[in-house]
Amino acid sequence: MRVKADEVAERAGVSRSTVSRALRGLSNVSEDTRQRVMAAADELQYRPMAAASHLASGRTGAVGVTVPAFDKWYFTEVVAAAERVLRPHSLDLVLYHVETGEQRRFLTDTAPYRNRVDGLILVAVVPDPTEAAYLRRIHAPVVTIGAESREFSSVGVEDRSGAARAAVHLANLGHRRLALLIGPIDESVRHEVLRERRAGFIETATAMGCTVSEVVAEMTLAGGAEAMTELLSRPEAPTGIFACSDEMAVGALKTARDAGLDVPGHLSVIGFDNSELATILDLTTVDQEVPSHGESAAELLIELIENPGGERKHRRMSTHLVIRKSTAPPMDCDGAAPFSHHTGLR
Questions:
Q1: String of DSSP letters for 176-188
Q2: Cα 232 to the chain's mean position, in Å?
Q3: Is residue 209 predicted with pLDDT exceeding 80?
Q4: Are residues 288 and 322 in contact, defined by beta-carbon separation less than 8 angstroms?
Q5: What sign does the dihedral 223-228-234-237 (CA atoms) show?
Q6: Over the range 273-292, which residues count as b (16 or more CB within 10 Å of their CB) and which as e?
Q7: What's the angle, vertex CA 80, arms to CA 75 and CA 85, rounded to 5?
Q8: Distance CA 212, CA 203 (A)
Q9: 301-318 mean pLDDT
Q10: pLDDT tens per residue across span 239-298
Q11: How far apart are the C-alpha atoms of 110 and 217, rounded to whole Å?
Q12: Beta bridge mates, 315
């Protein structure tokens, strides 16, 4: 026979409504009361009926998370971290792909998420004015991950200062010819993150007396390899490289080594993320504490769901440089790498 909420309430010495609030993790229940309710529910092996709970609360019990790609380490880490926070609050995660063109109209067109989720976490997708107006009109709680949003609660990263740290490290080692490997900056997705990294690296490197060449490629292993191949074909190749993702950096590093270059002897390489790949390959990288992005966004969204109309909040995640074995001083003091002796490309 199925145990009812009334029985849990009687065992815990509280009302039925308090049982409901406690099991849903709402903030208007004291921790002592919550623990009594949880203990009573465990003793009686009570399992709430999800459909009835959602119907009574007017909620769906789901949160939508939009990402521009499913196959990138950063997005999988953010989604996994968000899910870990949402799960104890009985919130399921529904994943949506929002990239460019037709898919970009997802936020304002037929709105497949409307009435299906209790809120949205937008990863690396900053709503434009039209999209923001629509989301406000349908009263959808929204948290963005990426550049700070003026319209919604957001989780941002110190991208500019993180990239600046990479420039300072290379310049302090003695490198003067640098290269920036960056992904395409698509206006329809509004890649504020990439703009910040680009500005932070170039401005700082230039101020420290360095020259910076820029190569645009996909932020993947293949993209990094393609960018490195282009750099190696130039008359004066750089001695220090900063890639806007670890995947891109590793692709560049492997291509350089395949061409006969020693890393970091002839070429220093820095990534951005501090992924597992960076740890395995001893890649110097900018750590942006990726799991904290998803955790913080989920926490902010839960607050908005439980307290509709609450004030917007903004969190900024710090970055720091993790120095490993892919960076070192250039082989000669003026920053000129003897690529012609090793690649035969001149």
A1: -EEEEEE----TT
A2: 31
A3: yes
A4: no
A5: positive
A6: bbbebbeebebbbbbbebeb
A7: 130
A8: 10
A9: 89
A10: 999 999 999 999 999 999 999 999 999 999 999 999 999 999 999 999 999 999 999 999
A11: 33
A12: 155
Q: How would you classify the pairing of strands 320-322 and 284-287?
A: antiparallel
Alpha-carbon dihedral angle through residues 83, 88, 94, 96, given to the nearest 10 degrees: -30
| 8-state DSSP, 140 | -
Tell me which residue of 323, 317, 254 sits closest to 286, measured CA to CA.
323
Give the separation between CA 233 and CA 271, rounded to whole angstroms: 22
The amino acid present at 187, given as its one-letter code, is: E
Tell me which residue has tokens 């995660």.
Answer: 93
DSSP 235-277: SS--SEEEESSHHHHHHHHHHHHHTT--TTTT-EEEEEE--HH
Q: DSSP labels for 313-345?
A: -EEEE--EEE--SS----SSTT----THHHH--
Q: What is the dihedral of CA 164, 165, 166, 170, to 10 degrees?
A: 100
Q: How far apart are CA 287 and CA 319, in angstroms?
A: 5
Instruction: For the beta carbon of residue 18, count every other beta carbon within 10 angstroms.
Output: 22
Task: Indicate the DSSP class of residue 26.
Answer: -
Predicted TM-score (pTM) of this structure = 0.75
Strand intervals (E) in the chain: 62-67, 92-97, 120-123, 142-145, 153-157, 177-182, 211-216, 240-243, 268-273, 284-287, 314-317, 320-322
φ and ψ of 199, to 5 deg: -65, -45
Helix (H, G, I), strand (E, B) or coil at 92: strand
pLDDT at 172 over 90: yes
Residue 241 CB contacts under 8 Å (≥ 6 apart), including other chains: 178, 179, 180, 181, 228, 231, 249, 252, 267, 268, 269, 270
Confidence band (pLDDT; 50, 70, 90) for 208?
A: very high
**pLDDT value at residue 171:** 98
Question: Which domains, from first to last, does the chain contain?
Answer: 5-48 (1.10.260.40), 62-156+290-317 (3.40.50.2300), 159-287 (3.40.50.2300)
Residue in the block written with tokens 């299906």: 116
